[in-house]
Design brief:
GTPase that associates with the 50S ribosomal subunit and may have a role during protein synthesis or ribosome biogenesis. It is built from 13 helices and 14 strands. The N terminus is likely disordered. It is α/β, with parallel strands linked by helices. The protein folds into three domains: 92 residues, Rossmann fold, CATH 3.40.50.11060; 169 residues, Rossmann fold, CATH 3.40.50; 61 residues, Alpha-Beta Plaits (2-Layer Sandwich).
Length: 429
Amino acid sequence: MFDRYEAGEQAVLVHVDFPDDTSKEDLQELQMLVSSAGVNAVDVLTTSRQAPHPKYFVGSGKAEEIANAVRACEADVVIFNHSLSPSQERNLEQLCKCRVLDRTGLILDIFAQRARTHEGKLQVELAQLRHISTRLIRGWTHLERQKGGIGLRGPGETQLETDRRLIRGRIKAILRRLERVAKQREQGRRSRKRAEIPTLSLVGYTNAGKSTLFNTITDAHVYAADQLFATLDPTLRKIQLQDVGPAILADTVGFIRHLPHDLVAAFKATLQETQEADLLLHVVDYSDEQYRENIDQVNEVLDEIDAGEIQQLMICNKIDRMEGVEPRIDRDDEGTPIRVWLSAQEGKGIDLLFIALTECLAKSMVQHTLRIPPQQGKLRGALFRLNCISSERYAEDGDWLVDVRMPTSDWHRLEKRIDTNLSDYVVKH
């Protein structure tokens, strides 16, 4: 048995290269994560393996090297750039005599530091509890096992069951509170839909410049810094677009490679702002050599939260760091803006962004008159629930003539939900 050590400020970093691309992580990104957590990296150890070792994740020889580095550098914590199993984490802690964190635990720690709102703190606590619930197995000396009488359990097992029950109870309480927050957010979204106010959601890899762009557009003074996950809590602001009117711009948490599933689940209410958006502004740091991989990672998370089919406008940010690149709008064959090149830091190209937003939102709305027969009352009811009916009247044959105006994304979602081609009901003028 051993004492569960506290994580400190001096860290030994461990990075393993695997031949499988799906297991690869970026060492430089780990160093940025560690710096964002306020931890000083005193040593970095790298190695290569075909597959993780079942006991230590790394080989036994490399594990001894890590333990020696901890003693030599007087480190307080070992941080792996990978996800460790609970048994691997415990085995490494026994060997190194210090706290061991994996990539998931590090990201959770950063989120815990950055949460500011009540909702954000609840979401982080939920993710942390789900994570540590798998790591309660004999990690502390006070959970010593003692044989009881016939039919009795030792106090160690009793303590473990108590800890698990307390965690389950706390998770249920947090979920109830987050459910109330989700209902409040849903009411806000319904109000915006009733007022036909489109929603724009900033998405992108962490540290791509979303918050800087958000501040430049809205003058919101949201915290922005050159570090990972500088923004955690979502912020909504109203902006005015020519020929469109008011729109809501949402700044959301940045994505990252292999974003922990517990975080995706915990931030479901926050990410719903992205799910319900009419247009996604995908901010990309085009000065980053790995911008293509970052784009793919963001799209993977968007697919995971069912937001992959929402229209995107690519924001090619940080052109001030690139030679010979000027602000411009790239368009597809139909003339629709698909990319805007700008610098949020210097404010270059912001006027082009507003032009692109106006054009995209004008095309993202559908306005039709539908002829709905009496037997399709379910369709009429679905339209009323979307608050998209501007007027309604009866035709001579008893059909409903319904004038609707809604975002194209809602039109397609409704078709999928009721498994009907709405174009069949459109009145041809």
